[in-house]
Design brief:
The protein is built from 13 helices and no strands. By secondary structure, it is mainly alpha-helical. Helix 6 runs antiparallel to helix 7.
């Protein structure tokens, strides 16, 4: 009699145990995917591409439908100049989740870089106009860059200005407006964007180069010397520094 009762108790407990076991395995799988994804992204940022590839492949092996892992893998292939493989990663992820805002933004930027402007702008427009997008300035800036590549500077400027309306401190949009203002000979505006960029992002070779040209146009020789020294000191191997050195007279 007691054996029958024990069997009934075991049968009752078995489904709960299986559910708990299944949940634990799923949680372990999610944890493994997340850990490898974070490591892969970190190694990407450090430009350690072999380690990034190893971890991103492990993340996808753990969860083949991980959208962030596919996006990161696409970035990796872009860095490796393997654009067909990068496109495959974006396409696969887009089929899984066509409404993913981050994916639309990144794939749109990729397509514009490949001069597939219509397809790229279509995705960037979806991402930037989606009311659920918490950072529309990223897609707006990419759309502006796409318009610049298409040769439409006024439309590009409109996108960059909209990006800065959404986030006044977004460094990539500030840099783009610094460049456009200088190209338009609006040197006071270029100076303003330069100062705003430096306040949030620090120096970069391109921003310093534009600052040098802007201050030279405004006749601020002291700032020209200061920015030139910074460029040569902090970024001696940049293309901008090489341009400066090529114009300097040998001592």
């Amino acid at each position: 009699m007691w054996l029958k009762k024990l069997n009934r108790i075991f049968l009752c407990l078995l489904p709960s145990a299986l559910i708990a076991c299944s949940t634990a395995l799923e949680r372990e799988q999610v944890d493994a995917t997340d850990i490898h994804l974070q490591l892969g992204v970190r190694y990407l940022g450090l430009n350690n591409l072999p380690a990034a590839k190893e971890n991103l492949e492990a993340a996808l092996q753990s969860d083949s439908d991980s959208i962030p892992a596919h996006i990161a893998m696409a970035f990796l292939y872009e860095k490796l100049n393997k654009y067909d493989e990068a496109r495959n990663q974006y396409d696969f992820a887009l089929n899984l989740d066509p409404d993913n805002i981050s994916l639309q933004n990144n794939f749109g930027r990729f397509l514009c870089d490949r001069r597939e402007f219509d397809k790229g702008m279509a995705l960037l427009t979806k991402a930037s106009s989606n009311m659920l997008n918490e950072s529309p300035w990223m897609a707006l800036t990419n759309a502006g860059r796409c318009q610049m590549a298409m040769g439409d500077k006024p439309k590009a400027q409109n996108y960059f200005e909209k990006a800065l309306q959404s986030n006044a401190d977004y460094a990539p949009a500030l840099l783009e407006m610094q460049r456009i203002s200088y190209q338009n000979s609006d040197f006071k505006a270029a100076k303003d964007y330069s100062e705003r960029y430096l306040a949030v992002a620090g120096q970069s070779p391109e921003s310093l180069w534009l600052a040098i040209q802007t201050e030279a146009a405004l006749g601020n020789d002291m700032l020209v010397k200061e920015y030139t020294a910074l460029l040569l000191e902090k970024f001696p191997y940049s293309n901008e520094a090489k341009q400066i050195k090529s114009t300097q007279r040998p001592q």
